Amino acid sequence: MAGDDAAAMADWVSAVAADLGLTDVDTGAVVDTVLDLTADVAHGVSRPAAPVTAFLLGIAAGRATDPDTAVADLAERISRKAGTWG
Q1: What is the pLDDT along the chain (86 residues), one digit of tens a residue?
Q2: Residue 65 included in any domain
Q3: Exposed, middle or buried: residue 16 (CB in 10 Å: 0-12, 13-18, 19+)?
Q4: Cβ(49)–Cβ(41) below 8 Å
Q5: Prediction pTM value
Q6: Residues 69, 83: Cα–Cα separation, whole Å
Q7: CA angle centred on 22, ends 17 and 27, rounded to 5°
Q8: Does any domain span residue 14?
Q9: Is 63 domain-assigned?
Q10: Does residue 8 lie within any of the structural domains?
Q11: Using an 8 Å Cβ cutoff, are 9 and 31 in contact?
Q12: How many domains does the chain contain in total?
């Protein structure tokens, strides 16, 4: 990702997180995890499945006792599944 794009994304994600009251979220880690996950899904399953999968990850992580740990664990699990899909 180009420097300007990365800076714009970081600013955007931080602003959205703040608007949603997610002040305790490590937005840098979330961006890296979600981008890796969506790349795995887009290449292993289908492009349209990537944002939907990220949405489902967010719902599942939000329901977890420890959402920060859940994001990493669930994303890894989903990425493995995408790697063996089809």
Answers
A1: 667 898 999 999 999 999 999 988 888 898 999 999 999 999 999 999 999 999 999 999 999 999 989 999 999 999 999 999 98
A2: yes
A3: exposed
A4: yes
A5: 0.88
A6: 21
A7: 55
A8: no
A9: yes
A10: no
A11: yes
A12: 1
